[in-house]
Amino acid sequence: MNCGATVLEGCLRSGLGEGAGFIALDWVDRQFRAKLGFAPYPGTLNLCLRGGDWDSARAEMEQAPGIAIEPPPGFCAAKCFTLVIDGRIQGAAVIPAVPDYPADKLEIIAPVAVRDALRLSDGDCVTLQMLIA
Q1: What's this model's pTM, rounded to 2 decimal places?
Q2: Does residue 1 belong to any structural domain of this protein?
Q3: How many Å apart are CA 1 and CA 128, to the nearest integer?
Q4: CATH of the domain at 22
């Protein structure tokens, strides 16, 4: 990750269990592989982020083009931003274009099960180096 990365800290929380189903969709998997350069582990790492740094980063992400995930009819679009988790695991933040998406939630995909690889549990915090462009 280059020196222009935004550094954020987020704490793990359980998700709704829908990430694996989303990632398993052929069109999603195909675009993640082609646009992000990796096959995502089936599931997302859900983080809770708060505070001024997160508010600024979220506002930047809303304005930035990111890496577009273009859906077929009936599905929502999303955009991604590449990142490194705890300086060790490459991944991406997925920002779905969903009304009323929780302002403090960030979903992360990676080629490995991040919880297992870093031995994390709900409430543990991780550092993200994210490229917002």
Answers
A1: 0.90
A2: no
A3: 10
A4: 2.40.30.30
Instruction: Give tens-digit pLDDT for 111-127.
Output: 999 999 999 999 999 99
Q: Is 67 a domain residue?
A: yes
Task: Quick: pLDDT tens for 51-69.
Answer: 999 999 999 999 999 999 9
Q: Which domain holds residue 47?
A: 6-130
Q: Please report the beta strands in the chain, taking only residues with DSSP state E, as ranges in sequence order.
A: 6-12, 45-48, 67-69, 78-85, 89-96, 105-109, 125-130
Angstrom distance (rounded) from CA 130 to CA 83: 4
What residues have CB less than 8 Å from 60, skipping those under 6 apart? Answer: 6, 132
